[in-house]
Amino acid sequence: MTNDVIEGPAIGAGLARRLVEAQFPQWAGLPLEPLEAAGSDHVIFRLGGRLTVRLPRHADALGQARKEFEWLPRLAPHLPLAVPVPVAVGEPAFGYPWPWSVTRWLDGETATVEALAGSAEAAHRLAEFLAALQRVPPAGELVTDEGLAARDRETREAIAQVRGVFDAAAMTRLWDAALGAPGWGRPPVWFHGDFHTGNLLTVDGRVSAVIDFGELAAGDPARDLMVAFTLMTPRTRKVFRGALGVDDATWTRGRGWALATGLNAYINYAAVDPRVASQTARQITEALVG
Length: 290
Hints:
The protein is α+β, with helices and mostly antiparallel strands. The chain folds into two domains: 13-106, Phosphorylase Kinase, domain 1, CATH 3.30.200; 110-289, Aminoglycoside phosphotransferase (APH), C-terminal lobe (Aminoglycoside 3'-phosphotransferase, Chain: A, domain 2, Alpha-Beta Complex), CATH 3.90.1200. 41% of the residues lie in helices and 14% in strands. The chain contains ten helices and ten strands. The chain has helices at 13-23, 64-75, 113-116, 120-135, 152-161, 168-180, 227-230, 234-244, 248-269, 274-289; strands at 32-34, 42-47, 51-56, 86-90, 100-104, 109-110, 189-191, 200-203, 206-210, 217-219. The strands form three sheets. A five-stranded antiparallel β-sheet has the order 1-2-3-5-4, with helices on both faces. A three-stranded antiparallel β-sheet has the order 6-8-9. It has a two-stranded antiparallel sheet with strand order 7-10. Helix 5 (152-161) packs antiparallel against helix 6 (168-180) and helix 6 packs across helix 9 (248-269). The protein is globular, with a radius of gyration of 19 Å. Residues 1-7 have low confidence and may be disordered.
């Protein structure tokens, strides 16, 4: 989930329909249905049986459509799980200010802790996905050196803000340890950047796809370890860590990323979205467990 959310316009099926009809008339006659609980970054509609329309909710997500259109077709052949296949990028119109996208529909249900937390198989599959992603040579223009230090002030402020809900002393100890851990110190590798339960799909109880690559970049892969704290138990985290071969410093930074992103989402969304409140509370608590 993103930082410093700038809310955008109200997005309904009428607006989505007008955008599709005006810019992609070949799909104008297809039924269009909103998807519930589509996420904090996009309003998503199913278009016919094989397509999805994704409209960013806020300015922080505005670069995703073109990024995915350029890079996902290049990454997809190397990955063991399905990813969204973009087929078109729409332009701002009818008062809607940002690029938007049409992608291939992916079958599946959003992953849940209840179904997958105890699954060693799921832990292995997710480790295999990240390992495969990291083996693909990264794009130089997407390399970032953003580290945890860039989030220091806002994370400490968030810790103070939620000290009545979570253990502030424990959060501060973890955050200090993550900031003090040795950095990646190796060539940058691809990371998904928002690798949590809500961005995983399952079919027949098995992880089948990874979606929402808006934070895709190259750098320190510790950021993607947040999935271990949004989805897994201590036992399956051990399976995941072993399969991926994560060293102590990277694991500690990963716990820091899980804490920072969990706090950010909790502060921004928990009061208005019970689903996000539950997910992020678990993420923070499990990051403290390790």
